[in-house]
């Protein structure tokens, strides 16, 4: 147990005051007994015998209860009487009994279910979450927890895990058939035509801007024995034919080259799904790409960017992330507060989780109680417990004195009446 607190010291002073009161009452009945006996011997009358009997029984009751109360905490008069000083000598056994009591009466399967069902966590939690200020509070707490978790995580460790997961998933699954199906749908829907339009338009613009470069490349590849003017004529002819071809392809949706490209993409999509050699080449290419350092660096940079984005969103009260979480909490709270099925489902989850924890870790929980009590100092524990309940126990001594006096008076009166 921890050291005595000011409140404990105040309780101990209260115990001492009650001890003085109980002891004073014992001394009072002892004095009454002595005076009654003296008055009886002096011939004061028969009433003195009744007073003496009451006082005598009061002393007996007071002493008996003093012994019982004292025996809880220490040996009466310092004598090693058996079955006294119960708390310091039986402390460890009391801890074991307390742990067993808690385990049997508070940590049982049925008790946990009944208590949680009576509480109605689903409806209460729903009503609480449905309040905007509570949803704001939960959102803020979740954002703080998310920001803290992302801050604590080491980038290198996360990047390694993410990279390994992506690589392992990619290695385990063949991608060629999926790419083939996707390409087949794109070609069927004509989605590739916009890409073709963009490519040929850019190619046309590039040819217009780089006429000299194209012609120079053609002239440079001509044999050395051909005249220069012939090379220049050939270069001009090649450039004009390229420009005409690209221009016609750009302006004619039904250009034969476009049709040929459609057929090529259709055949390639089919090969990706069914041709063994094509699929094998795609798998080899996939392995080479994933093994490149640039790809792993891309994965690392992607995680860094995602983390920064999430942290920034968690810190911004008006971010889309926090607004969506808040809206989801309000919606969930409204459903939990108004829909019985949702309440029952939440209650079932909570009950199941609590029962699992109780049934799985009941031994550890009760052992915590037992081990904690076993680790307490016996003398200090005795003083601590006495400070908390000793004042009430002193009332037992007072009641014993009063009840003993009344019982002694009644017994004496009955015996005198029967004797008369």
From TrEMBL:
Pfam families, per database record: DUF445
Native source species: Streptomyces bungoensis
Q: Could you tell me the keywords of this UniProt record?
A: Membrane, Transmembrane, Transmembrane helix
Q: Which GO terms describe its cellular component?
A: plasma membrane
Q: Please give the PANTHER family that the UniProt record associates with this protein.
A: INNER MEMBRANE PROTEIN, INNER MEMBRANE PROTEIN-RELATED
- What is the protein name given in its UniProt record? DUF445 domain-containing protein
Superkingdom, taxonomy of origin = Bacteria
Q: Where is the signal peptide?
A: none
Instruction: List the transmembrane segments.
Output: 20-39
